[in-house]
Amino acid sequence: MNKRPTLSLKTAAPAAAPKLRASHARALKPAPQSAFKTGLKADSLALSLLGAAQAVAQVRTGTALPQALATVFAKHDALPQARGAMQDIAYRCMRQLGQSETLIGLLAPKAPEPLVGALLACALALITAPDANAPYEEFTVVDQTVTAADAHPDTARAKGMVNAVLRRFLRERRELLETALQQPLAKWNYPQWWIDAARAAWPQQWQQILAAGDGAPPLTLRVNPRRGTVEAYLARLAEAGIEADRIGPWAVRLAKPVGVALIPGFADGLVSVQDAGAQLAAPLLDVADGMRVLDACAAPGGKTCHILELADAAVTALDADAKRLQRVGENLERLGLAATLLAAEAQSADWWDGQPFDRILADVPCTASGIVRRHPDIRWLRRKGDALQLATLSAKILDNLWQMLRPNGKLLFVTCSLWPQESEAQAAAFALRNGATRLDAPGQLLPAGGPEQDHDGLFYALFEKNA
Ligand SMILES: C[S@@+](CC[C@H](N)C(=O)[O-])C[C@H]1O[C@@H](n2cnc3c(N)ncnc32)[C@H](O)[C@@H]1O
């Protein structure tokens, strides 16, 4: 009979090593070979697994997944197909990192080196995917993971362990999963503080919220009403053999995500990629032709462009990040729209010409806890105190922008957070400090992934300035 594994997360230090002087200790441990190029075939699953694992290991040291993947793609001169596979594996891995790391704690004799752990986590994410979702045969995954381990100096010595761990998982899968899933970390795939925060903020809905964040997001488009109707665009998709449905006034959801290059009319500005929940911002602002509008945290410009698709307004798109602001320019150009772009901080007034705005959109920086299905790395990168720190900055931004609004003007406050201190509590405190009148707006939209309601978790509060 198999011995039932006991649950011991690998947080304990490995068995005490003899004490070495610092100079000796460095010499004994080889430095990670981050610049090493493998001899793995460009189109092999082994290379994709290794690339994904390198990206996951970077996330574990604090790098956002898109940046980590960009580094890995460059390092391997990865072909488009390999990039797609590395990205897919890394995103899957992020969505079930809690389960995979708990399993590794049960299976590995001692805590593995970071890249070995990440490689095992990527392999386990593929092996434990539900059948309908499993992209590779499990024995292929094991074989290719061992090949990947063998091909890199930071993992080669652990090749035997990698093989043993994955084969044991295949043999004892049921018991191992049963044991692992008793841990909230493994069951929900979020750090414990995040689970506690969700439960405290949303005592009725926290489980549904956490589950929605573990799903893969849909690809939702916003049809540009200046270039055609939703009906006409749905017909164009049908002609191209792309299945889609309408989930909002301008929102079209594709049944299966595709790369932007394959979206009909994308390059010509017929559509943009935007979550259905985010498509509520522009209509809530109620912009009329000729108004002066400030989009205070604009990049990459999804909401800026939507405002301009709905009205001929004089829009100033401001963002603190000059590089991200370039993307606003690219999106405007693709859609045939124009705005004034300003790289500046929304909590400062030194860029303002003193002319009040009719409408202000404040889509402030936040923890992004409502969009984890799109950015599954966020949960592993954030720290418990981040919400408070970001809320302090966004309070300054809101108070500063308020003085730039004309009497009877409207300010729309938006976050993509689920944490009340960044959203509802912030809105209530802002209204009180500034004597702002609160108008009708959705408040907190919880993330939903159903057939009709399919959107991220966003927060909307609309204010009017008394004359
Ligand atoms: C949630 S994103 C905005 C998304 C955008 N509104 C859209 O719909 O595409 C927040 C933006 O705020 C910017 N940001 C962060 N701190 C800022 C600050 N102090 N002032 C202005 N922008 C800031 C970030 O660079 C980021 O682009």
TrEMBL record:
Belongs to the class I-like SAM-binding methyltransferase superfamily. RsmB/NOP family. GO terms for molecular function: RNA binding; rRNA methyltransferase activity. PANTHER family: NOL1_NOP2_SUN FAMILY PROTEIN _ ANTITERMINATION NUSB DOMAIN-CONTAINING PROTEIN, NOP2 YEAST -RELATED NOL1/NOP2/FMU SUN DOMAIN-CONTAINING. Coiled coil: none annotated. InterPro entries: MeTrfase_RsmB-F_NOP2_cat (IPR049560), MeTrfase_RsmB-F_NOP2_dom (IPR001678), NusB-like_sf (IPR035926), RCMT (IPR023267), rRNA_ssu_MeTfrase_B (IPR004573), RsmB-like_ferredoxin (IPR054728), RsmB/NOL1/NOP2-like_CS (IPR018314), SAM-dependent_MTases_sf (IPR029063). It comes from the Bacteria. The active site is at residue 416. NCBIfam families: PRK10901.1, rsmB. This is 16S rRNA (Cytosine967-C5)-methyltransferase. S-adenosyl-L-methionine binds at residues 297-303, 319, 363. Keywords: Methyltransferase, RNA-binding, S-adenosyl-L-methionine, Transferase. The lineage of its organism: Bacteria, Pseudomonadati, Pseudomonadota, Betaproteobacteria, Burkholderiales. Pfam families: Methyltr_RsmB-F, RsmF-B_ferredox. Residues 209-466 form the SAM-dependent MTase RsmB/NOP-type domain.
